[in-house]
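At this stage, I wrote out one protein, both as residues and as discrete backbone shape codes, and that material follows here.
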Amino acid sequence: MMRHYAILRLLLAGFFLYIAWPVFPYATSTIELLFWGVWLLFLLLVIGANFATLLEMTRPPVMEQEEYNRRQRDMH
């Protein structure tokens, strides 16, 4: 189940990038360029964190760990 959440978050991030991509060329002022730069940096962090979770390089978020532990208890 934990993989499903990571995949859904990656799909959502991809959807946001799909929606925002056409707007990037219209950024002309410094504040607009700064906003899109920070937005892209945050998007890369979200994508990287979810790939790390998907590849099991890090522990999943606490909410998902509790669900995993509950399933383990229910199985035994």
Summary: The helical segments are 2-20, 30-54, 62-75.
